[in-house]
């Protein structure tokens, strides 16, 4: 080797360093960090910037002021289907995960229908967003809830380098360290792994945030994808005493939100977002980090009696119903995106979007595209992020929940611009709403608009055929039961 060939003049070295600096800057610009914070069961109107009347969310509200707030963003109506579609860019019905993971094992046998089959595990044949980003050189980390299958299908098998807390369970036994025990879910012993060496009084939302900050600190110069999937504010409804006292003092007649413990959980969630944003600022990463905040389904409107409560967990007003339902309260969710040099400040986007669009939006950072022969259910939102007043080349969103929940019987739905049709599978009942004039879905127009009903029902049927959606089956023994009405 001719060592003389490595000698450089000062001018050449300066040019080389300048070029290297440009290369590093270009590489950073081409590979922004991604922080995706997903709340669990947070309702559309549970944040201050979405009209909450009891809850306080100053940090999330600030994030909204710094980016784009979507007012008509959608998820699936329960958790595992939303998480599967978010990570794969495919509709939950196409992936065949249409109910929460544990619920796929066995459905009710005393109802007119047997629930549709649903996979317990996210198949390894699916390519996740984490896999694509990992292959593109990202450090990929899940902190918090996974809920997409057993140990053979944990995050590590789907492209995540780091998994802190992710299991097949959908909710923790408790939000208090050591986050384990029996009783809430029968005799099953539940725990949140990799959160050892805590202390009495430590709160799960705070601890998960600590772990997320550690990921940011340890990523070094490597671009990172941090998927911070909080359990909050899913049941059990438990919060720090001082925060509960604060919100109990704020309660007064006429509020939609009346659960002070839930409000305190939302405050801890908001504080988590604030801490993440502060750490990005401290490390000089804010200008090169995409931050996304969303929820996996609508707010839970039942009570958490196992936590000693008689007050509903939340209220999704002005939207109808809640988690599980395909009314707006069950599927419309908050979504906020801050992408430096892309999203304008204090922007509001009213175009309907869905969580699986994030796969295609963030997937563009890998410089690869999914095979054109593979199904593609979501869209790239970059044009909307740049110009939130724009529209997408999509005029319909579809939803499929062929299962039972306290808020619904098995049902499908289609939203085509302002029109929304629901089809209930027990009796083929149809409901039709115009969301432009009736966002609360109070006036059923099915009897007045037969042509629109026929058009949308056919579109819904055609879509179910195209994705091979699993359907519930008649229960032949239902009417034979003497207890049946």
Strand content: 15-25%
Main beta-sheet strand count, sense and barrel state? 9 strands, mixed
Mean pLDDT: 92
Uncertain parts = 1-28
Number of strands: 17
The run of helices and strands is: HEHEHHEHEEEEHEHHEHEEEHHEEEEHE
Describe what is shown at a glance:
It is globular and about 60 Å long. It has a single domain (31-389), classed as Alkaline Phosphatase, subunit A (3-Layer(aba) Sandwich).
Tags for this model:
single chain, 485 residues, alpha/beta, Alkaline Phosphatase, subunit A, 9-stranded mixed β-sheet, 17 strands
Task: Write the SSE topology.
Blueprint: H1 10-30, E1 33-39, H2 58-65, E2 68-74, H3 79-88, H4 92-95, E3 113-114, H5 129-135, E4 139-144, E5 162-164, E6 180-183, E7 186-191, H6 204-218, E8 224-229, H7 241-248, H8 260-282, E9 289-295, H9 328-331, E10 332-338, E11 347-349, E12 353-354, H10 357-363, H11 382-386, E13 397-401, E14 411-416, E15 419-424, E16 430-434, H12 450-467, E17 473-474
Parallel strand pairs: 1-8, 1-9, 2-11, 2-12, 4-5, 4-8
Antiparallel strand pairs: 2-10, 3-17, 6-7, 9-10, 13-14, 14-15, 15-16
Can you walk through the features of this model?
This protein is an alpha/beta fold and 485 residues long. 27% of the residues lie in helices and 17% in strands. It has helices at 10-30, 58-65, 79-88, 92-95, 129-135, 204-218, 241-248, 260-282, 328-331, 357-363, 382-386, 450-467, and strands at 33-39, 68-74, 113-114, 139-144, 162-164, 180-183, 186-191, 224-229, 289-295, 332-338, 347-349, 353-354, 397-401, 411-416, 419-424, 430-434, 473-474. Helix 6 (204-218) runs parallel beside helix 8 (260-282) and helix 7 crosses helix 8 (260-282). The radius of gyration is 23 Å and the shape is globular.
């Amino acid at each position: 080797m001719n060592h003389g060939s490595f000698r450089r003049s000062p001018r050449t070295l300066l040019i080389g360093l300048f070029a290297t600096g440009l290369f590093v800057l270009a590489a950073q610009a081409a590979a922004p960090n991604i922080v995706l914070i997903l709340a669990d069961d947070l309702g559309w109107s549970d944040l201050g910037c979405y009209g909450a009347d009891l809850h306080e969310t100053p940090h999330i509200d600030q994030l909204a002021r710094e980016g784009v707030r979507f007012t008509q963003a959608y998820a699936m109506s329960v958790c595992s289907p939303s998480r599967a579609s978010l990570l794969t860019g495919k509709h939950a019905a196409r992936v065949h995960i249409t109910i929460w993971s544990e619920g796929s094992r066995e459905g009710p046998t005393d109802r007119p229908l047997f629930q549709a089959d649903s996979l317990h595990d996210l198949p390894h044949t699916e390519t996740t967003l984490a896999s694509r980003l990992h292959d593109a050189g990202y450090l990929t980390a899940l902190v918090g809830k996974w809920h997409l299958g057993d140990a053979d299908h944990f995050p590590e098998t789907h492209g995540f380098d780091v998994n802190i807390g992710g299991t097949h369970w959908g909710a923790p036994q408790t939000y208090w360290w050591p986050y384990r025990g029996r009783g809430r879910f029968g005799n099953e012993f539940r725990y949140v792994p990799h959160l050892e060496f805590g202390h009495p009084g430590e709160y799960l939302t705070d601890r998960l945030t600590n772990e997320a900050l550690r990921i940011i600190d340890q990523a070094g110069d490597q671009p990172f994808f941090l998927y911070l999937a909080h359990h909050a504010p899913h049941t059990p409804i438990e919060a720090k005493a001082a925060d509960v006292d604060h919100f109990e003092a704020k309660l007064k007649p006429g509020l939609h939100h009346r659960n002070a413990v839930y409000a305190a959980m939302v405050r801890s969630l908001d504080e988590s977002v604030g801490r993440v944003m502060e750490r990005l600022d401290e490390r000089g990463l804010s200008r090169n980090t995409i931050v996304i905040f969303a929820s996996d389904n609508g707010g839970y409107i039942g009570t958490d009696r196992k936590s000693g409560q008689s007050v509903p967990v939340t209220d999704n007003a002005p939207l109808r119903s809640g988690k599980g339902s395909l009314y707006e309260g069950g599927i419309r969710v908050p979504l906020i995106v801050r992408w430096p040099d892309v999203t304008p400040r204090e922007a509001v986007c009213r175009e309907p979007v869905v969580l699986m669009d994030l796969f295609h939006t963030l997937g563009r950072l890998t410089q690869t595209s999914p095979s054109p022969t593979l199904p593609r259910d979501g869209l790239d939102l970059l044009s909307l992020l740049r110009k939130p007043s724009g529209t997408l080349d999509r005029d319909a969103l579809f939803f499929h929940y062929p299962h039972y929940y306290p808020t619904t019987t098995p049902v499908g739905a289609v939203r085509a611009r302002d029109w929304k049709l629901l089809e209930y599978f027990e009796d083929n009942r149809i409901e039709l709403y115009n969301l432009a004039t009736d966002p609360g879905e109070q006036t059923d127009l099915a009897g007045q608009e037969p042509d629109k009903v026929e058009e949308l029902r056919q579109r819904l049927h055609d879509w179910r055929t195209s994705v091979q959606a699993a359907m519930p089956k008649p229960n032949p023994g239902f009417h034979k039961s003497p207890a049946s009405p």
